[in-house]
Amino acid sequence: MGTRVVTTIGRLAAGVAIAFSASISFAAQPALTEQMEFFEQRVRPLLVEHCYPCHAGNKRQGGLSLEYRSGWQTGGDRGPAILADRPEDSPLLRAVRYQDDYPQMPPDGKLSAEQIAVLEQWVRMGAPDPRDGEAIEAAPGPSGTLWVLEPLPDVTPPQVDNAEWPLGDIDRFVLARLEQKGWQPSPDVDRGAWLRRVTFDLTGLPPTMAEVDAFLGDASEEAFARVVDRLLSSREYGERWARPWLDLVGYADQIGSANNVPAEQAWRYRDYVIRALNAEKPFDQFIREQLAGDLLTSSSIEERQDQIIATGFLVLGNVNIVESDKLVMRMDLVDHQIEKVGKAFLGMSLQCARCHDHKFDPIILQDYYGLAGIFASTESTRKVDRGVWSTVTLVTLPETLAEFTTREAALSAHDREVEEIRQEQALSARRIDEIDRLLETAEQGISNGESATLANASSPEDDRSPAELKQERADLAAKVAACNQRLWHKDYIRPSAPATFAVKEGAEIGNSRICLRGNPHAPGDVVPRGFIRAMARGTGPKIPADQSGRQQLADWLTGPASHVVSRVTVNRLWQKLFGRGIVDSVDYFGARSEPPSHPELLDFLARQFISQGWSQKQLLRELVLSRTYRQQSTATTAASTMLAADPDNRLLWRMSPRRLEAEMIRDALLASSGLLRCSAGGPALAPEFMENVGELDPKSVNPISFSLQRFRDDAPRVRTIYLPVVRSSEQRGPADILNFFDFPQPAQYTGGRPTTAVASQALFLINGPLLQQAAKSLTETLLADSSLEDEEARLHALYRRVLNRPCTPEELSNARAFLGASAPAAPENGSAGADASRHDSWQQLAHALLASNEFLFRL
Amino acid sequence: MANEPPDPHSADRLLDRRELFSWVQAGIGGAALASLLVAGDRLNAAGSPETGVDRTSHWPARAKRVIHVCLCGGLSQVDSFDYKPLLAAHHGQPMPTSEKPDVFFGQVGLLRQSDWQFKRRGESGLWVSDLFPSLAEVADELSVIHSMVAETSNHTPATFQENTGFRLNGFPVLGSWLSYGLGSETDELPAFVVIPDARGFPAGGTINWTNGFLPARHQGVSFRSKGAAIDNLAPAQPISDSRERATRELLSAMNMRHMSERGVDDSLLARVRSYELAAKMQLAVPEVTAISGETAATYAMYGLDRPDSADFGRGCLLARRLLEKGVRFVQLFSGGSFGNPRINWDGHENMVLNHGQEAPRIDRPVAGLLRDLRQRGMLDDTLVLFTTEFGRTPFTQSAADVVGTGRDHNQYGFSVWMAGAGLRSGTTYGQTDEFGYKAIENRVTWPDFHATVLHLLGIDHERLTYYHNGIQRRLTNVHGTLLKDILV
């Protein structure tokens, strides 16, 4: 009974936990039985340290390998090393106990009693051992054991009992799983709520009142598809979907985390991602450009620009640009790039293989250094002449004629301003010379015994004392110095040919050596540049001796490894719409990930994704038009079985409700209150304000630094994706919402964000300036709208703007009561005091609505 | 204690009933139902936070609350608490060893004696170096563990391990487990408060106070030691109290009605609860952070009167005040993340400059904290932890034939200490080898350390569990051996 109590309550609590934290990034921790955990924590390290030196790889002393389960099962010269039926007699235990006449192992010293006890315990457990594989000198190759490495099968959507329900193939897969359990999907959500859901999901914004009216006024089934097509072709689509990609890139407007070094050109990459999404750039091309855009051919200047900008993917992470050990710095960057490529495209943690073959996944040291050679043959950073610093490589972009003309015009204006500063400076300098002469004369006069005034000096109008003149001189000198600062600043922001953070083929191209234990100062064997052998069928493209291999890596990802890339990519999009991925750990598809909830569906979609030309829009279109997506998110009492058995909604018996992400909350607040302004993108850091730029002196040993003293006037009103992202501190100014609502630290490359509910969020919503501004603006609009003839109409308008629905009779009476009670009982004679009070009451009402759960959730 | 012990507030009750209802509807068998009812009774019978009744003890708790001082970057054991005469004797010689030590940056220089003098301190005669002159004066309060080992010598995962027992992220930290296991003694402040270094967050940032898979309200809430403790405590533009109250009530009514229409939904419930806590915090936080009322003597005791120790002193003083108000676990970070110049204990280049910069920031404040807790009688049931993610090498990080000035990371042996309730004070536990490199006697892992902390708080580390993804998860995973020898 005791155990049972624990288990039952545990399950109950688990439902609570998952719904509370709804964490995706945490899910990378796979379910391991405690036995396997025991093996991994206690047994494996022991075997690796004490037994592998003579019993693994091509070393099989006494014919025994302990590298895989099959090794000790088959055993060596003395037969199986572990005896399931007589564990105490197992040769392995007798050897480590230094027992009787057995070989004493390890030969160089007996294990500690504790270590022997671990092995004994393991053997008594039945020697649980996850290490599949053959204890032979196998060439690395497809392991065939990990499902994600299998080619994409041609899956036929399953038959379902309830043929009425599915709108398409996706729904058949989902329904079939539910029917297996004897479950039913949830009813469709009402149309208004569907519109709000899909508009948030595809554009990150709520629908406008006009969009709601148009959709509700069109009862046809095609209305759904029309909405989706409209949303997918909006600019806002790219602005919303770029952000999850930037999460994976570790994007920030800062290079590294030391000294606030600005990544002035990072915005070009952010805008590229938005452009690529909006232009429906096929995902395979998107990959190719980001890894090797500089090596591709182009047919226009704009295309060439995008190709170069795209390679910013490889350098806009948490790149260290100051490190005493340059070799380490370089290998760390290479490691960074390998990690990013592994995570973003392959759903794998590759960096373990920097020091040793991956413990669980089929990634070996040679694979890692094969990739390392590619990135080590690529130039990503270069030394600058300020102190010990380097910077990310800046590549000049070709310029269109229009850009050139604009720049020329800007340049002449710039030159005029520079000239003005120079003249101002020269004027001050001349006046300093004058004063110096006056002072000199005066000094001579004094030494000649004349009066201490300058009345007799050469300049009759200047009758000031030397002290006054000295003061003026000091002021002028300060002015000259200030002009220097201004000139340096002007030089920094001089309109110049566009340049971007990008990579190039390195000056030296070649293969890398293995770094023993990951240490670049301990070089091992040279490894030919290449890819991850177990991940693809066949050998993959050959890398010519004079090329880094980035282009071939891109070809490999989109060719021989496309079955992995496609699964990972489809799963990411799925996760953003349904709350969880089909594979829960969206960044990790390895052996220790949990199995997919709908493996056939994932394969089906991944295969279709490739056959439909890697089109994200096409995939998203199909997903949001499914019946699965149309389910309501409320768990009715009829759904209590499913809620109890599947609180995480893994089987998709309803739509999972989700709190909006940080950017969506802010953008929706601005949109609903009428404050939102379009932005065309562009530089984030506002370097044109001198107070935002430090270390301007060219003789400084530190690089130019930025601070966010001043934002542009429109910053509080543009979409959040256009605000600057910093690494070394909390997000600033209008972006401060990111500090409260689970924005990932840009040092991480992550495909999932946790969702927390903590008091600091409540305080932000109640007391922060953003909500107050939004409520104020909303109130002003509503109270000034003369088409709203009475309070009831105004309240409906408020609800429609904020929640996309009219208010219910109950809400109406509650709101009226609130407005009546919170306004002082002043006569309705239009006095200024009563007006102000009425305004305040409305503002508070609007504020409450904007902070409400219904507003903050995408239901 | 395998389940979530709810607060006795209405929202939880509501949840319990709803869940119960849905289970009954689902036709769950009699045994399961009975177990729920039993759980309900137990929880209903449990004390409320206001009365401070310990709800969950597996045995009588020696400690009721914890302050955890976390030194980021790696405190050198051989320069602080682990005295090795042979290190001085072999200064400038290679470490006699058969294999090349495995260190983070790969450079193994010659042995370097400590730049700080070691002395026996207090009645206990505990060895403490002059790196910590003030802590040395309270040496008799300390239980030093000399034989800690970590699984990695990389800051971020090592710091996670120090806080969660796991190197990978995603697991709840110690403070969250305690918040979950013991609840709070106050409903005005979070159970788990974090005070990051005034200069920046530790490696890995806010993940170091994550609730992992535990419910989000067990997440650490970070307080600044300088300026406004938390953001948005007061409205950006002032409004009248009555208006604010009316607005809150309206918002609360909106949310409750929305929730009642939607049925069971924990994410919505969590938000409602976050508003309740926020409202109480608005009153409690300004009060608890108003340290200006403390005496000049207290200021001096915590080092607030000195520029180098004022930051950390404020944090320590704030920590004491938070504990007095019923906060369960306060974690103070000494040191931020990587960067240049260094703002943590990561003395790769020059130990004298680095530890010489960091130690004065915390020495007087931590010693003052121990003294103050002692004089207030709080040390009898408060546990103070002083840890670092790993230690440093006895040899320098330099070429093989050079005595360099910096030390590399060392996961194989390092020192931490505990003080306060239930501990044998003025003692040491475990040993490193004669150079202070590797732990050779009574090796202590983080799960052992965590198990002992839980034990002192009245919790059996094997029974504080939470079901997640098919596993009854524990802070100590499948490990953890109680350090009986350091207990009274």
From TrEMBL, chain A:
Ranges of compositional bias, category Polar residues: 446-459
Region (Disordered): 446-471
Keyword Lyase recorded: no
Keyword Nuclease: no
Pfam families associated with the record: PSCyt1, PSCyt2, PSD1
InterPro entries: Cyt_c-like_dom_sf, Cyt_c_Planctomycete-type, DUF1549, DUF1553
Protein name in UniProt: Planctomycete cytochrome C
TrEMBL record, chain B:
InterPro entries xref list: Alkaline_phosphatase_core_sf (IPR017850), DUF1501 (IPR010869)
Highest taxon, organism lineage: Bacteria
Leader peptide range in chain numbering: none
Name of the featured protein: Sulfatase
Organism: Lacipirellula limnantheis
